[in-house]
Amino acid sequence: MARYLGPKLKLSRREGTDLFLKSGVRAIDTKCKIEQAPGQH
């Protein structure tokens, strides 16, 4: 079975919700701007 090794936070930001692909210790809001879609600056 294959694993996805790409940018996990980029997927979460595109969907607009936490997909729990990263560690569940810290909130996703402290890691990145979840409101801003990837590619938009």
UniProtKB/TrEMBL annotation:
GO molecular function, one term: rRNA binding
Entry keyword annotation includes Ribonucleoprotein: yes
Alphabetized UniProt keyword annotations: Ribonucleoprotein, Ribosomal protein
A GO term from the CC aspect: ribosome
Residue ranges of domain Small ribosomal subunit protein uS4 N-terminal in the record: 3-41
Keyword Ribonucleoprotein: yes
Family indicated by similarity: Belongs to the universal ribosomal protein uS4 family.
UniProt name for this protein: 30S ribosomal protein S4
